[in-house]
Request: fold
Amino acid sequence: MTDPISSELSESAGVISRIDPSSVRAAADVLIEAFRRGNQAIFMGNGGSSADAQHIAAEFSGRYLIDRPALPGVCLSNIAPVTAIGNDYSYDLVFKRQIEAFCREGDVAVCYSTSGNSKNVVLAAEEAKARGAKVISFTGDCGRLKEVADVAVVIPTRSTPRVQEGYLCASHIMCGIVESALFGSRAVFVDRDDTLAPNVPYCSDPALFDLYGDVPEAIARLTAAGYKVIVVTNQSGLGRGYFTMGTLDAIHSKMVSQAESAGGRIDGVYFCPHRPDEGCGCRKPRIGMGLRAVRDHGVNPYRSFMVGDSDADMEFGRRLGCSVFRVGGGATFTDAVDFILGARRRRVLLPRVGFCQLINGLPSDVRRLWISQAATRRSFPPEPSKECPRRPSAVLGTGFPFWP
Ligand SMILES: [Zn+2]
Reply:
């Protein structure tokens, strides 16, 4: 006689193994697209499914498997609105009315219903679609919700506990796909003037622009190690009318082709064209350029670096969540690359912030020694300074603004 526990475990595993993988992939793709656009995912369900909805929303606003910036996953199960709407209107409207409040075109409503017929969830799904949002449903093999949904993840059984186990498993897999698509790459963000190339103030002639001689080789090493190289540069000379977009394009084309001369690659060039007094969100130390690059290149800033020569560069890197390295005073971009690659090879626990401040100001030969020693230590520095906590979330308080 079969042990009833083993029998139920096999039954659950059997149901889970029959979930259509393409539906989970399609659900993940919908979320990836929405998050890339800056939209949010809104989760809902009743009872145990409400807890599942909260759980999965938290995998996005918190994290699933990797340390990365927060994603906007919210859940509609807060007790005050649910009871207020239930009391003043009808329990059938507790999610629909919150969808009216929060859901915008391009958002995604993620709906959990074991039966697929929870009236309040179906009404909310219909409202979300009417507002131009996409709907993902997680249900058993029954009910109306999957007909309303753009992507239906169907757990192929009508057994309530098996359905709920199935959609938790499918949802977790979906989280992993989204996370690695949006944050799978490492990058080195790098300033242009005085970091990659000598600074020619408001350079308006491509002939006057050249990378430092050792830079193409250093970029090639980053490319070979799998890093994306992304230039982020303030170019207020454009806003001041000192040169044209055509000139800037020509300078950047020259920069990119010089970088390629040693076999490396600059994967992206982002510039802020605004004057400081315009108050834009892209002039460093603000992080608009970084957030766009993160989105465009699927970069995890928490596993990336910022290299530059100024306070603004360092603040930009810290706010984005990167480890930072300051050049100048004898330390060059090549030193930064030595540090980045040496640290990675030896699996050092890197400080996200603060390293540059510690070594800044030392003579260059001492600095090089510190760099090489740091790269061989297990953990460095042992205590982060107050103004440079290791975790970006601590710097930013309540969370990480994914999009401006
Ligand atoms: Zn700007």
Notes: Confidence is low (pLDDT under 50) at residues 346-404.
